[in-house]
Write a structure and sequence with these properties.
Blueprint lengths: L1 H40 L4 E6 L4 H4 L2 E14 L2 E15 L1 H7 L4 E14 H11 L7 E5 L2 E10 L2 E14 L3 E11 L2 E2 L2 H10 L2 E4 L7 E9 L2 E8 L2
Antiparallel strand pairs: 1-2, 2-3, 3-4, 4-12, 5-6, 6-7, 7-8, 8-9, 8-10, 11-12
C-alpha cells in the first residue's frame, strides 16, 4: 500500500512539474507581451492568445500559434479602429524568455493580419495635425480617397475636391497620391497636381509592430479601408 502511495505521489509531482510552464511561464509571457503592445499602441483594448498546449515549447523558443486583436490602436498618430494578427510556428529568442519573459520575435512559418482604418480615423488625424478648424474632411470610397473642403481665393470661398489613391511604399508604408483636383467642380491643370506631389507627402509607416511588417494589399470600401499585412518570416 505504501509503495502504491509513493507511486501516486511521484506521478502527482511529475504532473505538477509538467504543468508549471503552462500555469506560470505562459501567463507571464502573455502579460508581458500585452503590456508591451499596450505601451506601443496606446490602447488597453488588447486580447493576446498565445497557443502553447504544454508551455514547454516556450522554453525552447517555440510558439505553436498566436492570435492578437486590438481596438483603437495608434500608429504615428493615426488611430486604427481594428487590428488582428494570427500566426503559426513562431520562433522566439529563448534567452530573453528566460531572463525577462520577453517574446522577442525571430521568425515564423506564417504570421499575417488585417488593419481597418475608417473615415473617422483619417479625419481625426487630419484635424489634429493640419486642420484644427475642421474645414477639410476625407471620404473613403471603393475607388479611392477624396479630400473635400474649401479654399480662399480672391476673398472668395471655393469648394474643392482632391481625389487620390493609396499606394504601398517601401513595403510597410501607405502613401496618399493625388490624381485629380477639382475647384468648383472644374478640373485644374495636371501641373498643379505635380506641385502637390512634390511638396506635400502624406505617408503612414506601419513598421512599428513588434514584428517586421509588410503590406500586401489595400481594400477600399465605403467609409473604411482594410489593409492586409504580413510579417517577414
Amino acid at each position: 500500500m505504501q509503495k502504491r502511495w509513493q507511486v501516486f505521489v511521484a506521478l502527482g509531482l511529475l504532473l505538477v512539474l509538467a504543468l508549471i510552464p503552462k500555469l506560470i511561464i505562459l501567463p507571464k509571457v502573455t502579460k508581458q507581451l500585452r503590456a508591451e503592445l499596450q505601451n506601443e499602441f496606446q490602447t488597453d483594448q488588447i486580447e493576446v492568445n498565445l497557443q502553447a498546449p504544454w508551455g514547454w515549447e516556450l522554453l525552447f523558443g517555440r510558439l505553436p500559434g498566436v492570435e492578437l486583436t486590438m481596438e483603437n490602436a495608434v500608429v504615428e498618430n493615426l488611430t486604427l479602429s481594428h487590428v488582428e494578427i494570427e500566426g503559426e510556428k513562431i520562433r522566439l529568442t529563448p534567452q530573453l524568455l528566460w531572463e525577462n519573459w520577453e517574446a522577442a520575435y525571430e521568425g515564423a512559418e506564417r504570421l499575417e493580419g488585417m488593419v481597418i482604418v475608417t473615415e473617422e480615423d483619417l479625419n481625426t488625424l487630419l484635424w489634429e495635425e493640419l486642420d484644427p478648424e475642421q474645414t477639410l474632411h476625407f471620404v473613403i470610397l471603393p475607388t479611392g480617397v477624396a479630400l473635400n473642403g474649401e479654399v480662399s481665393l480672391f476673398n472668395r470661398e471655393l469648394d474643392f475636391t482632391l481625389h487620390g489613391r493609396l499606394e504601398i511604399l517601401q513595403e510597410s508604408n501607405v502613401r496618399f497620391v493625388p490624381s485629380n483636383l477639382e475647384i468648383q467642380a472644374t478640373r485644374v491643370p495636371p501641373f498643379l497636381l505635380e506641385v502637390l506631389n512634390q511638396n506635400y507627402d502624406l505617408v503612414v509607416d506601419f513598421n512599428v509592430f513588434p514584428y517586421p511588417v509588410t503590406i500586401s494589399e489595400i481594400l477600399m470600401e465605403d467609409g473604411q479601408m482594410r489593409i492586409k499585412i504580413g510579417v517577414i518570416p
